[in-house]
Design a protein that fits this description.
- The chain is of the alpha+beta class.
- It is built from 24 helices and 18 strands.
- The strands form seven sheets. A five-stranded antiparallel beta sheet has the order 2-3-1-7-8.
- A hairpin with an 8-residue loop joins strand 11 and strand 12.
- Helix 15 packs across helix 17.
- The chain is flat, with a radius of gyration of 35 Å.
- The two termini are 52 Å apart.
- The relative contact order is 0.05.
Length: 682
């Protein structure tokens, strides 16, 4: 079958930079999905994206949709002749060309034929149009008097199949073979002869690097080189790199400088101002200190780059001056002078103000600090001050600096180092994989803050629903679990939740509040372990016991994961399932005392003896929480367990013997349940 290359490029006004990558990927996916649905093959599909264009190049695309076998079922053979004639006519054939198909419900006429495939050129306009219609654009716009809608005004449309223009009109544009060059370097039309020429001609003639990935890596290399040129190391934020890639067609990195006096402001504030407002990269010196430089990307190869640099320096100066002013102004008033002002900020209507929240956290953080051998006094003070930086000018301007500015202001006020450190650490981990709070006071405050939010929202019956989680309760729960497990803290989550619930007083959902939040939090473990490659069965085996200590929960998970790799695991899981089923069918209480005088078979005597020995050995192992060793010792029971089930009838006719054997199985089951419900692994 004949093949050609295919190019589609939609030219627009500047596209939203933060959405460009997503739009490009969706455009590609939409086109390839349309081709796949039509049965049209191609060798490779490649996206292109720049500030003023979305494009897709397909190599080796088939020029004809393949023919396909079709089958249409018609009326029953007993139907009136007119009905049969009507069906045959709709298929374009006579009655004599219909076949009869036998089914369980009777005989029916059926038409079988071949539907000729359409030309690819005739299908491409619909496929491209459909892909554009499905792009993830939250709000489309109109322009001029046109009724056409898109994310930005469209300017040109290039569609080539081989060296021929595809006959199409999309978004009010007639397809042609012309693209356009750089707005300043080559503000002219460029005629394309073949799709494969697209990226090369745009780059060489039009001064546009259409390949997003190529442009991105070029920017990375230039920024790194600029950092080295000033004797430092450029810091590349990947999201910022994506954004500046989406802002430039012909990127040129330039380095500017700002006054060293601004370095008295916390570096994070300066970096955030440069990044958010100006899209600048920063550089660090050999001591990881911020250097008084910024690296910007110009979308032009200027004949006088110094003029471009000076223009950027003029723009950044007032931005940094604002940050310096906020910092100096904020320091004139200590944090604790802002405590009462927190009464003006509502945390949640039913849960009160941020001041109320701080008071609740104070008691809870102090209690947690004592449990983890921290300083309760520090924890109380940190909780009192924890939200005060919300009332500062710096955090009002740069909300991302919440906590971090609290740290700087607390140090300035002469607060203890650990109290100041907790100001910033209370929000850690901020996202998946983020670092955890390191100080005991920071740990206590971070856990207390999250547990207060969790119990409060559940207490007013507002848990997360579906994808809606406005207070980020799932993230809060996972943060608490991470802190406890990764810091190996021996904390009982139910105890902490009970303390947190008590700080709230009476709420509409106070009944069973700690239990409900505990269940929610333990369920968060599932996603965490899934990311670590732990199977769902392993999680469920531990979850069935509902351990209330996250650290204990994690140790059991590790032990069960190890156990599943043992040769005995499968057989023991099956045996546990069998024991569980047998015991589950019994009515009334089953004793655990085994009468050795009632043991008749050698296999049951061997099991009873082995159990007694293992029970004795495991007592200190369980006390130490060494579940891995416990399961390894239990794995040694496989042979005696197999022998028991092969040679002993549990449900004996003699009631006393039957009860004795059930007691033996209950003791066996109880031993395994000391770690997890192994029966769920089968």
């Amino acid at each position: 079958m004949s093949q050609h290359d295919f190019l589609v490029e939609l030219g627009t006004e500047e596209l939203p930079p933060k959405a460009l990558k997503t739009l490009s990927g969706a455009f590609l996916d939409g086109i390839t999905a349309g081709l796949d649905a039509a049965g049209i093959g191609y060798t490779e599909a490649r996206p292109y994206a720049a500030p003023r264009r979305l494009a897709v190049l397909l190599t080796g695309i088939q020029l004809q949709q393949p023919d396909r076998q079709i089958e249409k079922r018609g009326p029953a053979t007993q139907a009136p002749e007119k009905a049969v004639q009507g069906f045959a006519g709709s298929c374009g054939v006579g009655i004599d060309q219909l076949e009869v198909m036998e089914t369980p419900k009777g005989s029916y006429y059926v038409y079988r034929g071949v539907e000729q495939g359409q030309s690819t050129a005739s299908l491409l306009p619909g496929i491209v149009s459909e892909s554009l219609n499905k792009l993830p654009i939250p709000k489309r716009m109109r322009w001029g008097s046109s009724r056409t809608e898109f994310v930005r005004p469209v300017k040109w449309l290039c569609m080539l199949l081989g060296d021929e223009v595809v006959d199409a009109e999309i978004l009010g544009l007639k397809a042609g073979r012309k693209t356009r060059g750089h707005r300043f370097h080559y503000n002219q039309d460029i005629e394309l002869i073949a799709p494969a020429d697209y990226a090369r001609v745009l780059k060489e003639t039009g001064k546009v690097i259409a390949d997003f990935a190529e442009r991105r890596e070029l920017i990375r290399e230039q920024v790194i080189r600029e950092g080295e040129r000033i004797g430092g190391t450029a810091q590349i934020d990947e999201d910022l790199l994506d954004e500046v890639t989406a802002l430039n067609e012909w990127p040129v990195a330039l380095t500017g400088r700002f006054e060293e006096r601004f370095l008295d402001v916390p570096a994070e504030a300066l970096i955030l101002s440069m990044k958010e407002n100006q899209k600048y990269f920063h550089a660090l010196d050999a001591d990881d200190k911020l250097m008084p430089y910024f690296i910007t990307l110009a979308n032009i190869e200027s004949k006088d780059p110094q003029q471009v640099i000076e223009g950027n320096e003029k723009v950044i100066r007032p931005r940094l001056a604002d940050a310096a002013f906020f910092f100096e102004t904020d320091k004139k008033q200590p944090l604790d002078a802002r405590i009462d002002k927190l009464k003006s900020i509502v945390f949640q209507q039913q849960l009160g103000t941020v001041f109320d929240k701080s008071q609740r956290i104070e008691g809870l953080a102090a209690a947690i600090a004592e449990l983890i051998n921290g300083d309760a006094g520090y924890a109380r003070r940190a909780a009192q001050l924890s939200k005060c930086d919300l009332m500062t000018d710096m955090v009002f301007e740069f909300t991302e600096l919440q906590g971090l500015m609290g740290y700087h202001y607390a140090l300035h006020d002469g607060e203890p180092e650990e109290v100041a450190q907790a100001m910033d650490e209370q929000y850690k981990p901020r996202f998946a994989g983020d670092e955890l709070p390191a100080s005991r006071t920071g740990i206590a405050l971070a856990i207390a803050d999250r547990l207060d939010t969790l119990t409060g929202l559940f207490g007013i019956n507002q848990p997360p629903t579906g994808s809606k989680d406005p207070f980020a309760l799932r993230r809060a729960a996972l943060g608490v679990l991470r802190i406890i497990v990764e810091h190996k803290l021996d904390l009982d989550l139910h105890q902490l939740l009970t303390l947190a619930a008590e700080q709230h007083g009476e709420l509409p959902g106070s009944e069973g509040l700690a239990d409900r939040v505990l269940d929610f939090m333990l369920e968060r473990f599932r996603a965490w372990y899934d990311d670590r490659g732990i199977s769902a069965e392993t999680f469920l085996a531990v979850h069935a016991l509902r351990p209330t200590s996250p650290l204990d929960f994690d140790r059991r998970i590790e032990a069960v994961s190890h156990f599943r790799n043992l040769a005995e695991a499968e057989a023991l899981a099956a045996a546990n399932k069998r024991v569980s089923n047998i015991l589950g069918k019994q009515k009334g209480e089953i004793a655990t005392d085994v009468d050795t005088d009632l043991l008749q078979e050698d296999a049951e005597k061997a099991l009873a003896s082995a159990l007694a020995e293992v029970e004795h050995d495991l007592q200190p192992v369980f006390e130490q929480g060494d579940y891995r060793t416990a399961l390894e010792k239990l794995a040694a029971l496989r042979e005696v367990i197999d022998s028991f089930f092969d040679n002993v009838m549990v449900m004996a006719d003699d009631e006393a013997i039957r009860a004795n054997r059930l007691a033996l199985l209950k003791r066996l089951r109880r031993l395994f349940l000391g770690v997890a419900d192994i029966s769920l692994l089968g």
